[in-house]
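A reminder before we start the practical. When you read a complex entry, don't treat the lines as separate problems. The point of joint prediction is that each chain is placed relative to the others, so the output describes one connected object in space. Small molecules and nucleic acid strands, if listed, are placed in the same frame. In the example below there are two entries. Take a minute to note the order of the lines before looking further.
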Amino acid sequence: MKSLKMNKLMFLSNSDDRRDNEGENLHLVNWEATETAIFQKQYLLLMAVMLLVLLVYLLRVWHLQVLQGAKYRYQSENNRIRLEDIPAPRGIIFDRNGTPLVENRPAYHLLLVREDVTDMNQTIREVARLCGKNPEDFLNVLEANKNVPKFVPVRLLADIDRDCLAKIEAQRIRLPGVMVQLEPKREYKWNGTAAHLIGYLSEITENELNSEAYQGYYAGEDVGKFGIEKTFEKYLHGKRGGRQVEVDAVGRRMRLLDEALPIPGRNLWLTLDVELQKTAEACLQDKVGAIVALDPRNGAILALASKPSFDQEQFIRGLTSEEWRKLSRDPDHPLLNRGFGAAYPPGSTYKPLVALAALQEGTMKPDSSIYCPGFFYFVNRKYRCWRDRGHGAMNMHNAIVQSCDTYFYQTGMRLGVDKIAQYAQWFGLGAKTGIGLPGEHPGLIPTSWWKKQAIGVPWQKGETLSIAIGQGFDLVTPLQMALAYAAIANGGKLWQPYVVRRIEGSNLEEVDEIKSNLKNKIPIEPRYFETVQKGLLGVVEESRGTAHAIKDASVLIAGKTGTAQVVRLADGVNRKLAAKNAKEEELDHAWFVGYAPADDPQIVVSALIEHGGHGSSVAAPLVQQVILAYLGKKVEKTEP
Amino acid sequence: MMDRRLVENFDWWIIWTLLGILTIGLLSLYSALYPQIQENPTQNLFIKQVVWISLGFVVLFCTLLIDYDRLKTLSLWIYLIALLMLVAVLVVGKEVNGSKRWLDFGGFQLQPSEFMKGVIVIQLASYFSSQDTSPFPSFNKLIMPAVLTVIPIVLILAEPDLGTAICLVTISATLIFFMGIRWRYILIVALGCLPLIWPIWHHVLKPYQKTRILILLRPDLDPLGAGYHIRQSKIAIGSGMTWGKGFLKGTQNKLHFLPEKHTDFIFSVWAEEWGFVGCFVLLVLFALLVLLALRVARRSKDRFGSLLVVGMTALIMWQVLINIGMVIGLLPVVGIPLPFVSYGGSSLITLCFAIGIIENVSMRRYVFQSR
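Here is the predicted structure of the whole assembly.
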């Protein structure tokens, strides 16, 4: 379509009739008239729309400023509209039987709205007198907040006691600008119990505030920093509410304009049994170590004790830098969750897995016999069995019962490191269990490929011998061991562990049940499981078993001891003498992993004591106590 | 360098109106930032804005130099570069308050989505002025403009920046409407969009954006956020009464009641201190600017020029209407600044560019071609 039309033009002038001018070479470019006529309508429509809307706006502004102006002027000068927070109570954490582990208590904060204060010095002195504080402290708080707008309340004192609260309330009429704010605060009913699992809160950091994950959070709020409090933060936190209030010149509430009620955080129901937890912690006393108890039928954590523990309330109060230094520099690392945050060589507790691998792979028959003279020679080196005199002829059952090293050196040799690793990985070792709580250690199950990659040196066959008895590079967590033994006990089901079984909202319909999750069905024949299970039962039941001392008439316990060497014993050194002279950090880690009742497993317990010495004498009795406490209590419960 | 004729056709009225609006802008901004400037004189956004305005005038002047007709051939390249910048924002952009909108050039922050507003005008004007497009284009001819608009909108929504996305929609819609559109097309598009509302509401819009729309219908839904802002904004405007409280005498403003008083809510600062009289003057100035610009469009020598000016006018007009409507509580709260008044560098550059294009078309309304 042709849209341009040329007109001749010779001379240019400012008058409107220039289109009629004529010229020789230059042509005024002009727009086709039919098209401009179409557009003419649109211009008018656009103008009309704009003018109409602006007119409406002008009327609105006139209404606001002229008709209602006096009202708004009054509001802006004499009264002020304030926003007050209504903090949301955090979700409560219950144990499996409905006993609250963590609750909320009311805390009262003393706030000051500087804009409403008539005489700052007088007010500060009066408040300091009433609460028995130094006015200097308050001045420091005000100094720190001097860039905050004057109408924003400043927190003078956090969590004041009842006495102080009563005095302030009585005098408030004389103290314009002073406000008391109620806030629910976390209260750990059994402070320090299951502390690593439950975790703690502390004030949200600048970085967290700016991050996507914490949208809608306010400065000064407490957020979960560790354990369940952290992982389930989004459920526990709730949503704070607030209200718009009209206040008078001294900051007293005149009228509630609008209100958004807070949405309380959702409650968590754990799989944890608080009584069992307390028993486990009592068992550990002041030892450094961990006890993990879980249900082999679904992977539910029944107890997870890690010692030393820490003071959760300390974090709520706000740690001083001195306290934090003390906590973080403690050589025993109280904040470390030894249940799954630290990994240790499994020692002999690893042997049942090697046995299962050998049986399934066919490298060993249950009754094939190996003679143990107390050592095993391999490439000119003497690998010692723990029993210097030797065990004599061993079949698989006896090798498990008596924990014969020589037998497993040879078994491991035949399997090779990579086969052992494959089975260990089937049992969930060397990888995070997926419990979903912060700070989980994946452990380490070495393969020849791994060593080449990580260390750059090819695998030495002699190292396979160490691996076969759970030494060397092998690292596992007590939680991993409990799950692996659960899989032995239940015939090959590897569960994903879980500790929260229900998340419930404030209205009852809002309930999420968390299902147990089967991670792996281990392809090992049932009869091989049976062989190993019998061996584990023999460890406790048979007189030669390494944990015969914990045999209890009331319940059949199956399990395996482990003593993980921390320092290698030099050739020819007497074992007992070395143990006697060893410094504490050179003592072996003591392990025991067991389950009961052996014929119908309901609980698996793994115990690790750092530098505790022998698994049989140190760790096994603890496991026995926990098992008896759990099964014994169940009996009591059903009887009446 | 520049033809005398070009200078003669320069529309000085537009510049005077613009200067009037800019003056009001600087007065409001100074007032809004006054408490901040007193506390911390080194971080002075006011000075920064003055620098941006000067830069804006440089851009305006530069825009006058080249014949706008050249833009027709360049439009696609400009459009692609602008798209590239929008992608760059998503990749390396600077994140503030959960949205990535800025590209950082050594302390200089640019907001490519602002530039896109001007670029889309050029691209659509160029498309609609091609030889084979007539007024009241057929439906097929409207698919391309829709695609050209939707691509940047998707990128901008990903930042996310709802306000700028809405601006782009209004600009394109104005241009399409201006080309003449048959009612049945509007009906088809409306019916076509209807089933999209459900998924957009449930999956695309962020919760805060939903509440802002709902608040318009029911302000009690968010008494602590937008509801509070609107209430405070209304108090600020209303308390100005007829004559205003006077320069720097506003109180609502000093209470820091609004986090964005120097950007999106600047109108309430002006209204509080200068009253109904001030508001009247500002609204009249904006109306005048739009009317003058549309006069340029009407007088333009060709369709491309006319469409360019209409698009640039739409860019200014819709932002004015949406921003003020929001501040006085008639429209939902979306982040759209008030042209020439709110603080913001990229926005000012784009707006000055728009004025430059309008003037460019005005200057070249009589152009001679040799046969």
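Discuss with your neighbour: The two ends of chain A are 99 Å apart (CA to CA). What might explain this?
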